[in-house]
Amino acid sequence: MKTLSIGFILLFLCGACSNGKDATKVNETAVLADSTASDSLTVLDVPDNLDGTFDDFVYAYASNKQFQLHRTHFPLPYTDGCVRKSVPRSEWVHDALYTEQEFYNMLFDSEADMDYEKNTDVDTVYVAWLFLDKQKTRRYHFHREQGRWMLQNIEEASLKGNPNEDFLKFFHKFCNDSIYQRAHVNSPLKFVTTDPDDDFKVMEAFISVDQWFAFRPSLPKDKMTNICYGQPYSAATRHKVVTFRGIGSGYSNTLFFTRDKDSWRLSAYEDLSN
Description:
By secondary structure, the chain is α+β, with helices and mostly antiparallel strands. The protein has helices spanning about 5-20, 55-65, 65-70, 165-175, 180-185, 210-215, and strands at about 25-30, 40-45, 75-80, 85, 105-110, 125-130, 135-145, 150-160, 185-195, 200-205, 225-230, 240-245, 250-260, 265-270.
C-alpha cells in the first residue's frame, strides 16, 4: 500500500494550493499499531503543511479511509457512559464525521471566542455530534503529537450537566417549532450581509420576523455538530453564537442569541456567504 488514489492526491494538491503554499510533499511513515497490522509499514505522501491547521487535517482524515486508519490510535478507547471498550483496527468502520453534511456548526459563548477557530497553536481539538433529540453527545478527541494530528479516543455521554445543556434544549425547540421560533426572534432583527456592490464590505439592516423566515438558513433538526478549539463554555453565559459553515463552499451564516431573564432570543443574523 505504497501509492494513493488519484482522488486522494488531487485532494491534497488542492488543499495545498488553496492555502497559497507549495504542494511540497514529504514521506510520512508509520507502523499501524494493531494486532492485525503490527508488521505492516504504511508510506503516505502528504503535503508538508497538512498538520499546520486542524481544518486542513480533519477534511483529509474524514475523506480518505487509508489516511484515517493511519491517523487513528488503535486499539481506540471508546466510552459510552459507564461502558468502556477498545476498538481494534480490524473492526473500525470509516467515519466521515461531518463531511457528508451540507454544513457544519460551531458553538461559542461570545463573538470574541470565534477567534479560537483561527488559533494555529492549538494541539487538542474536540469534534462532537450533538444529538438534540436524545440530549446526548459523541465527542472525538484529536491531539497533535510530534506535529501530527491523531484521533485519541471517542466518548459518548449525556448532555445533562453540560454547560451548553440549557441552550441546546432551547435551540432544539427553536429549530423544530415555528410558532416557538417566531416568539423568540427579536423584531426588528439585526441583519448583516455582504454589500452586493462590493464583496469586501458588509451592510447592516433590520428585518422583520417574516423576513427572517424568508432568509433564514436551513436549521438542524435532531442533530448538529460542534468543534471545540479550546473556547470556554459557561452555563451562566447570556450570549450564544451558532455558526454555519459550508463543506467545500463559501457558505457562512451566523446566529447570535441573547438570554433575556430566563428566555433565549435570536438577536442578530449574519449571512456572509460568497
